[in-house]
# Entry
Amino acid sequence: MAAAAAAAVGGQQPSQPELPASGLALDKAATAAHLKAALSRPDNRAGAEELQALLERVLSAERPLAAAAGGEDAAAAGGGGGPGAAEEEALEWCKCLLAGGGGYDEFCAAVRAYDPAALCGLVWTANFVAYRCRTCGISPCMSLCAECFHQGDHTGHDFNMFRSQAGGACDCGDSNVMRESGFCKRHQIKSSSNIPCVPKDLLMMSEFVLPRFIFCLIQYLREGYNEPAADGPSEKDLNKVLQLLEPQISFLEDLTKMGGAMRSVLTQVLTNQQNYKDLTSGLGENACVKKSHEKYLIALKSSGLTYPEDKLVYGVQEPSAGTSSLAVQGFVGATGTLGQVDSSDEDDQDGSQGLGKRKRVKLSSGTKDQSIMDVLKHKSFLEELLFWTIKYEFPQKMVTFLLNMLPDQEYKVAFTKTFVQHYAFIMKTLKKSHESDTMSNRIVHISVQLFSNEELARQVTEECQLLDIMVTVLLYMMESCLIKSELQDEENSLHVVVNCGEALLKNNTYWPLVSDFINILSHQSVAKRFLEDHGLLVTWMNFVSFFQGMNLNKRELNEHVEFESQTYYAAFAAELEACAQPMWGLLSHCKVRETQEYTRNVVRYCLEALQDWFDAINFVDEPAPNQVTFHLPLHRYYAMFLSKAVKCQELDLDSVLPDQEMLMKLMIHPLQIQASLAEIHSNMWVRNGLQIKGQAMTYVQSHFCNSMIDPDIYLLQVCASRLDPDYFISSVFERFKVVDLLTMASQHQNTVLDAEHERSMLEGALTFLVILLSLRLHLGMSDDEILRAEMVAQLCMNDRTHSSLLDLIPENPNPKSGIIPGSYSFESVLSAVADFKAPVFEPGGSMQQGMYTPKAEVWDQEFDPVMVILRTVYRRDVQSAMDRYTAFLKQSGKFPGNPWPPYKKRTSLHPSYKGLMRLLHCKTLHIVLFTLLYKILMDHQNLSEHVLCMVLYLIELGLENSAEEESDEEASVGGPERCHDSWFPGSNLVSNMRHFINYVRVRVPETAPEVKRDSPASTSSDNLGSLQNSGTAQVFSLVAERRKKFQEIINRSSSEANQVVRPKTSSKWSAPGSAPQLTTAILEIKESILSLLIKLHHKLSGKQNSYYPPWLDDIEILIQPEIPKYSHGDGITAVERILLKAASQSRMNKRIIEEICRKVTPPVPPKKVTAAEKKTLDKEERRQKARERQQKLLAEFASRQKSFMETAMDVDSPENDIPMEITTAEPQVSEAVYDCVICGQSGPSSEDRPTGLVVLLQASSVLGQCRDNVEPKKLPITEEEQIYPWDTCAAVHDVRLSLLQRYFKDSSCLLAVSIGWEGGVYVQTCGHTLHIDCHKSYMESLRNDQVLQGFSVDKGEFTCPLCRQFANSVLPCYPGSNVENNPWQRPSNKSIQDLIQEVEELQGRPGAFPVSISSETNLSKEMESVMKDIKNTTQKKYRDYSKTPGSPDNDFLFMYSVARTNLELELIHRGGNLCSGGASTAGKRSCLNQLFHVLALHMRLYSIDSEYNPWRKLTQLEEMNPQLGYEEQQPEVPILYHDVTSLLLIQILMMPQPLRKDHFTCIVKVLFTLLYTQALAALSVKCSEEDRSAWKHAGALKKSTCDAEKSYEVLLSFVISELFKGKLYHEEGTQECAMVNSIAWSPESMEKYLQDFCLPFLRITSLLQHHLFGEDLPSCQEEEEFSVLASCLGLLPTFYQTEHPFISASCLDWPVPAFDIITQWCFEIKSFTERHAEQGKALLIQESKWKLPHLLQLPENYNTIFQYYHRKTCSVCTKVPKDPAVCLVCGTFVCLKGLCCKQQSYCECVLHSQNCGAGTGIFLLINASVIIIIRGHRFCLWGSVYLDAHGEEDRDLRRGKPLYICKERYKVLEQQWISHTFDHINKRWGPHYNGL
# Structure
């Protein structure tokens, strides 16, 4: 559409001549200045008209569509060139006019100066990071922008950072929403006095221009909106219009940001009714305006809204003309009649009132006030703007503009009223929208700003009937998706419920409206109006009843349901949000006595609604079988208001309770839910699919339980306390379908339950009774006690983190209720019941979080199994709590065995609920308890320990709550004839316990054993008695009892009620003919509850007469029966506790117990074992044996594994490592023996069947990260801080190599240094060996195994078959001798000259290998393939350094560098020095020996040119040829520039293996002389001119002394004089002198320098010697490391002992006269330095003191990182990344998963991990605070090193609490990086496919 042609200046040419653009701008300014002057005159009519004419032209909205369509005349626009240009032009004009001729920017600045910015009001959209401080907030929705938050003082407050879901605005400065103490420095209230008055002429132009501008915008909106043909305008069209309007709306937005002065002008413009009328009425002669007005009317009509004609008079008249007047007529609240109205909602296609079909049902209320739903009249720009904003489905830009205006108070009121006026329209648009989610967010973005403010909400409620509108709109919204309820009476039900499958509920579309409603109910003044208004309450109950009984479940009895519906999510969400939360909101205002009236109102209308509901579903007295709904919001409203009334308002409970009949009805459905829960857990609903389990779990889950199960149980408690107890108890057992089970007979028939479900249903029924009778949540516990009980229950199940506790403790969902999570009471209760376990870090273990665990006294006194059962979502949690309880008792020595759940004393009952205890004292319950005890004793089937436990619990509860002490004990012994009709004499449990029951008549199947036993032939003396007594045998039928009671209540008047028993139940379910005939038998029982208990004690303890009354020894026990001895224990303890309590309550009981104990109980007859049982016993025995065998095997395996674990797994603890003995210790065995972990055979490694070590090869750049300073670099957190990599080890080595390559021969350069600082190959092993052929078949099997492992078999990856450590290659073990091979070790007495000769000969002998390479053995093949693996481990760029690609020197260099890398890394793992000595941590797992063999084998394939063997240069004098240096080709690298350690490795790897010890020592001695000379040369370069000449002379004097060759002064002086000949020292710049001169060299500091220079070489050499010859490293102090290593290497003569300080020069052993060879070496340099003195000097000084590598140092507080990086732009793509990450090794900022920075299919993180870490990357994800590790082609989430105050991670920053660095965790991360153990320690790896 055509916002475009905005400036097609009225179709005419502009009045000025066409000028070039710049001229035009000038001209605009002039026009504007002229107009401003004209308007400033007192008589400004002419100016005004002129301005109007100009604006008409500039802002004309004619032919916009043509322009949008690119019509021909669009080009005539003022600026020419298409629609965009025209639009620009219009905006330019406006800016010029506003500024009145001045510059627009200056104008902006001028206006800003008058901003009384007391409010921040910054508006943000979704995903913005904002803050919320609960300490400062008055409204729970309060939020602050980051800037205001950091500028304010919130130390110690309860705040968090959050990512905005829907958008929001900053409340800083608004004292209605937050306390002033939290305002930031900018918005601490300024008094308006110091803001100067706005000069009139500054904004004068704005007042004229803006109305036209806004009108123009509205015209565009009208034009652009085309009423859709079918179902709403396509998103595309709307978006197109909005895109064109973007600049205009942005312009308005910029205006709002100019501050208060401009906002008030805008407010005037937007709310002024006169302006609106003049411009938009469409009555004028302007055709364009007319057309636009017509489009507006069409749009209104199509929205189902009528435009009331102006002639009507409106009921509500506004006091001030400035604000809008609302089109609302008197509202009548009554709704809900069934009728039909023609509603204009497109959604209701179903016009007929199709009640029979499962169709939508339409409720329609003729009485509902149409004015709320269908009438809209716009009287100002603001109103119409909002209308279009809604029509266009809340475009973000418009929303932001409307919200940016809110700091203006007058606007805020006007806008709120407008919003309320459009509320119904918003609802209709929302329902139709395709993008309801986005739209919901935007609506809430607006409404939360308006309704969080109590003052405003109250005003709108009073003036605009806000509550009426909201309730009506909600009701109307839900009416569109009603269906007929199928609960109870399907055919004749009149009840309608919402259909949870509708999009409206499924997508939570109602959420914005409900959330507004909850928001306004949180204001006391508004809630009070609601609670006082009867009409509203009726309407609201009507609304709630739509949810009553929704999502009905019907139990599938035949086959599994085909399609599992997931509607239950919608149903639970709807009940919680639409019913429960408003209820909590209302309850929070009913806290005091004065609010009694409100409660009475709610309860009254609630009961009425319930009565209507019962009538509508045709409910009589029986719930329909096999149906359950979890949704009874009306019951729950009723229950919660009752609870509140008793708890807080001191209302008399009976005054708000209905009659008995209603109570009976009320209890049915909640009880049905409890029974169904048991059925679901017994798997009776399994055919309904998983979703039914989901419902059962959601019902008790922490966010729902206090709005669902708690009210239900409370309501049942209330009913139980008021109804007849026998009726209630029998109802319970009937609901749970276990009536038939409660018989004395050993067999019975259950008509309604399968046998396999009986046990769990009986457990369910008893558990429910226990919960019902012991739960006190609403019966007298205070809030703090509740909180404590909840917390203890959660902590007993498992240790919990702070955040999960907050989540699991059901808090009152309404935020104003006072129990706020994290509030003071929460923290204080937590510290009272729990101990904090700080996070533990086992290196290599899992990362723990900080946990809370119950204190010992909590286990001892407060563990409450009942509460745990009530709160567990998963049944396993109950078991977990019991296991933890058991562990506590064992540990504290309180009870060794398997304890039963402890019995816990309860809080006292509130007097109103005393009736509840009558349940414990009713005959029905006592009969049930007696029957169950008897059945358990007789071992009847289907009873469990759990049943017994619950039975005893109930008996104990009864004893604890017995009514009164028996007054007249003897009375109860009266004649037996009084109680012949019933089982027990009275109803008090205490006396009933001792009542003996002799005979019981039972109905049993004919097959039952009881029938056969009573054969007439029996002639026992008893026989006669039993027949006489048969009349008094007890008969008991629960169902009949219950029916009788029910009839009594219903037909109180009729006297013959007792005879009427409707046999309704039995006929319903039993299938005729299926059951065997029932017959009556009489059982002889002769037991009382007490006697059963005592026998039970014998049975449980397994001993005869095990019970001995304790009071016989200590009579005191009876007086104070609370004895800790009995508080924990098993069933035996429980029985003893009960008997003790029974005895202490009544003397009679005590006497009877003693009597029973005196009679010796006859032994229980042994059971006869039937054949079938015998068979099962045999089976059991066989199983048992098999099990034992398996245990034995497992144990053996475990111990093997354990011993292996001890030797192999530990990564960083040197103490407990025993080197793995690869051989036995006898010296005569020379061949090493290896175990193959696959085939289990042991044997040597041979050439045709080699054994190999399991190894992991990985490229590593850890060495390259060493720097020369100890302090690690800090992660940059400001723009100034940057990290430059040029001081790293890798960079320095790179520079050195390229410098050498510039001046010397390439092949010799490649022998003078080592590579592998970056991308070096590190080899590590777990120490296990396997045959290489076994390994190949193992790999084959892995390849065929389809289960995808976390590694890629194709890349050769596997896990060690024994220890499961990750590996990717096998390193062949070289056959032959072991390390401790004696003949080679013996020191020979050859002179050094002879040895030098031998070394040279051995090196010259190519292939002097026992294995000749020519014959291709398996071993040599394997060696080659492993070498290939090693090469392929690292990237090509880290292997090829030569100028001629593929030269053999390259491979040579690479191979000895691999050895170097592994030695250097081992040194780092030892902490950078060898002071600790001993076998290394890697000692038993080192594979260096095998690696050396492989490397040596390959090195010897390359022979060095014999005329250039460095060995000769080191050991022989050659005649000097002065012409040598000036040949054409580049010279060799002078020997003084060689890296000595590299030379060492080359020499050793060129020797035949195994090497002789004396040859090794010889090589070391020779190389040490070179090293020492290099040290002296470097020292001479470092010192100043004067020092040099002084030393030169001092040394020259001593040259003739005897040990001159071992004196560093002499040697130094000689080196200086030799180097002097070249021009090395001549060109010293002054600046360098200045730098070095500061050091004054003393003999000590020189000695230290020389030692430090040589130490790295000595360390590497000692390590090498340790690995090659198996010698232990001595430990020492740091200062004596040099001398110890030197003597260990044989450089120091062993007898060397000296008092005077040790001198490094004494280690020298020159093979040829020192001065000659030094001269020769220096001569090589001379020719070079004459030409390149600077480089010559640089090459001499080698930096050898590298410190250990570290990761970057991180700041203490995570917020510092987050604030800097989450808005930082990426340097590659210059966008702010969606997932920013930063490398913790080098600090590079990267886009995780960003496609913007992808290169050749590699995303940036993967690419960086290859460049920075040769395949290993450690990244901190900024938005998640988590660290991610990339290793090659896999990645894993490592965890976070930032924890909150409670020691928890906050992944994805969901909680937004402040996070602090956890140094231990960071250390663990760094340790894993340095030791290359990421692969072994972290378990959850996945492939990243280069997409990170």
User: Anything to note?
Assistant: The two ends are 42 Å apart (CA to CA). The longest strand covers residues 1320-1331. The chain has a mean pLDDT of 78. The chain is about 50% helix and 5% strand.
